[in-house]
Amino acid sequence: MAYRAEPPDGGWGWMVVLSAFFQSALVFGVLRSFGVFFVEFVAAFEEPAARVSWIASIGIAVQQFGSPVGSALSTKFGPRPVVMTGGILAALGMLLASFATSLTHLYLSIGLLSGSGWALTFTPTLACLSRYFSRRRSLATGLALTGVGLSSFAFAPLFQWLLNHYAWRGALLLVSALSLHLVACGALLRPLSLAEDPVVGGPGAQITSLLRHGPFLRYTVALTLINTGYFIPYVHLVAHLRDLGWDPLPAAFLLSVAAISDLVGRVASGWLGDAVPGPVARLLMLWTTLTGVILALYPVAEAPTGLVALTVAYGFTSGALTPVAFSVLPELVGTGKIYCGLGLVQMVESIGGLLGAPLSGYLRDVTGNYTASFVVAGTFLLAGSGVLITLPHFFCFSAPTSRPQDHVTEALDTKVPLPEEGLGED
Amino acid sequence: MRALQGLRGPRAPALPLFLLCFLAAVRRSLEDGLSTAAPFTSLPVQEEITTKYSNLSSESHNISVTAAPYTSLPVQEEMMTKYSNLSLESHNISMTAMPMKENNKGNQICVDRGIMLQRNVTLEQSNMPVEKNITLERPSNVELTCQFTTSGDLNSVNVTWKKGDKLLEDNYLVNATGSILYTQYRVAVIGSKQMGSYSCFFGEKKQHRGTFNLKVPEINGKNKPLITYVGDSVVLMCKCQDCLPLNWTWYGVNGSVQVPIGVPVNDKYVISGKHANETRLKITQLSEDDQGTYWCHAIFELGESEGHVELVVLSYLVPLKAFCAIVAEVVLLVTAILLFEMYTQKKKKPSGDGKEFEQGEQMKLDDSNGIENSGPRHRKNESVGQ
């Protein structure tokens, strides 16, 4: 038998964790630190700030909407070639951007080209990671996602240094070389053949079956709701603090504190997700509810100590819900369909992410302060966690978590993909 | 003709000087004090200048200034009426010599008549000169007033004024009220010759000194060097915060000599400026010879002021070399990873079912499939052993 029945849960899996760590750093760290280039572009192209910020927005949008494509391709070809191609695309986009003479040029090269490169790297990597682990899945995901936070710390000063020494053209050239490391990370993704892989069929069949899968759809809805509220504090916290009378430097410092507690939360929740038996969805619901409550409490807190405590707690809980959110998916759809599943989820939940910040800004413009937007964000999170309750086996305290064997034994009888694969609750 | 000196007696015993405090703009109080006697009306322009030159902090204080009527001098009248169309500016320095504390070292908070003033002044020696910087853009009449408070005998204090090192003989008044000694110097600043440092001295040995530095506004260039590449074009900008110079000129530096940039050669240099308070020098077709410091001079009626911008021109090879180095490193990494994989695969017996893929997986390196099929078995043993 050429296929594993169980994910290895270690061994080369840890190299995949390392690869995922660097990839999340190189994709999201670069995206988050791109604000440093922002000022230079405004001066160099003499365009208003709103138009320049579209560069990052297009990049993020392409990355998220392109996730299903990345997933489908890696289902067909395996993650390694897809991620390596994605790395080359991302680096190529940055390289072309260094020759830019207009803003449109940057939209196309960084936004479109690098964005599609990123779409081909991130989702397949996380899905590959989920296939390598089962017992320690949450911990592995949590560790891998810390790359995002750490790289934001490291890349912003690095980019500023590059700008000071090479101006933006040279700096983009060197960021392109940096992004090329995605190819090296992709080389680390040794493909894994698991037992249920031949059964679930090609990408088209998988996507169709997923779209008919009740729990998957409910989960997607829940994540979209969560995503709508998730980013609001990151975007508006500093502005809210300034409204309350804080100076810019302590406000920015508080955001860094939130980032640190975010990191801690990711790792702690990852460990917890593996240590606690039962469906991981319960933990996700716990963290989501806590985050929602904290967000709703923000308008009430006026004193600095209260705000600091709330921000640290928010950082921790919001960081905690990320690895668990990724770990729920394999339990729902099985590791065979993980690539396509993750791609679809990312695409749909990005709608929530794109809507959340402008909605919050609009509420702020209408009401005059951030109370309404924080409360709405908290409500979205609580709604998302409410939907999570409807997931199967939520209230069963003795039901085992989905194991690949279940999928295999159910599916091995036929060679066509079954639409009702999953925990078999139907 | 000598100004009426006021009371001057024998040299007062040396009074240790403890505090020198900057007093805030005394514009309003001074106007109130002088409005009874001054031949000038306060013009609306003054208020404007007050807010414009906000480096002269405008805290108000309630030291009552009772000015005794000044005797007008013929010379002053003549000069002032000649330039009466110019705006008037008043500036004040206050100095106190209090015999209370002997402490000359460390920070002291200036307490004058029970009012706590904002700045702490560190004294290192007993005769610390007090300085005030005044920025002037257009010709104006300037009044400089020094107040000296001492508990000793005011009549015995000697008052002198100097511009730079030159002793000024006239155009100043001295008056004493209560325990404060006032002296006021008026000058019509119409050209660069009247700019500079004016100092008032109290005491026989001129030990207490207040200085007014009259300067033209400062120009801001750029502190960080501008990095550009060969063949690019760049815009150098100099800006003045609140002032409107008459004219701007640019100078490039050749060696240590400033060479004016005047005639545009092949449109290489274009001088422009969107507003009057800024100037832009656009240089096209940069080459490495264009590297260096560029100076912008702002010309005022009262003098010149300059700022500088540093330009660095790099060739494309500079970042390109770093880029190629990093790309080579990545290629090396990828090769190493794939070679390592082939090596570990060779260590195991290559299995015959290495050609079975799941889902038609096509890989760039076909032999890697062999690893997967023998690998899992290997790893399974590992995991069982865990």
Automatic annotation (TrEMBL), chain A:
| Location in the cell | Cell membrane; Golgi apparatus membrane
Recorded GO MF terms: monocarboxylic acid transmembrane transporter activity; symporter activity
Q: Which PANTHER family match?
A: MONOCARBOXYLATE TRANSPORTER, MONOCARBOXYLATE TRANSPORTER 13
The family database entries (Pfam families) matched by this protein are listed as: MFS_1
Say which species the protein is native to. Odocoileus virginianus (White-tailed deer)
Q: Which domain of life is it from?
A: Eukaryota
Q: What does this protein do?
A: Proton-linked monocarboxylate transporter. May catalyze the transport of monocarboxylates across the plasma membrane.
> Does the keyword field hold Nucleus?
no
Return the similarity comment. Belongs to the major facilitator superfamily. Monocarboxylate porter (TC 2.A.1.13) family.
User: Which InterPro entries does the entry mention?
Assistant: MFS, MFS_dom, MFS_MCT_13, MFS_trans_sf, Proton-linked_MCT
User: What does UniProt give as GO cellular component?
Assistant: Golgi membrane; plasma membrane
| UniProt-recorded name of the protein | Monocarboxylate transporter 13
Transmembrane residues, as ranges?
12-31, 82-100, 106-127, 139-160, 166-189, 216-237, 249-268, 280-301, 307-326, 338-359, 371-395
Query: CDD domains annotated for this entry?
Result: MFS_MCT11_13
TrEMBL record, chain B:
Ranges of Basic and acidic residues compositional bias?
350-367
- Do you know which PROSITE patterns this protein is assigned to? IG_LIKE
Quick one: signal sequence residues? 1-28
Its transmembrane ranges are 320-340
Q: Do you know which InterPro entries this protein is assigned to?
A: Ig-like_dom, Ig-like_dom_sf, Ig-like_fold, Ig_I-set, Ig_sub
Pfam families assigned to the protein according to its UniProt record, in alphabetical order = I-set
Residues annotated as domain Ig-like: 129-200, 217-315
The residues forming a coiled coil are none
**SUPFAM superfamilies linked to this entry:** Immunoglobulin (SSF48726)
Q: Which UniProt keywords apply?
A: Immunoglobulin domain, Membrane, Signal, Transmembrane, Transmembrane helix
Renumbered residue ranges of the record's region Disordered = 346-386
| PANTHER family from the UniProt entry | BASIGIN RELATED, EMBIGIN
The protein's name in its UniProt record:
Embigin isoform X2
Which organism does this record belong to?
Odocoileus virginianus (White-tailed deer)
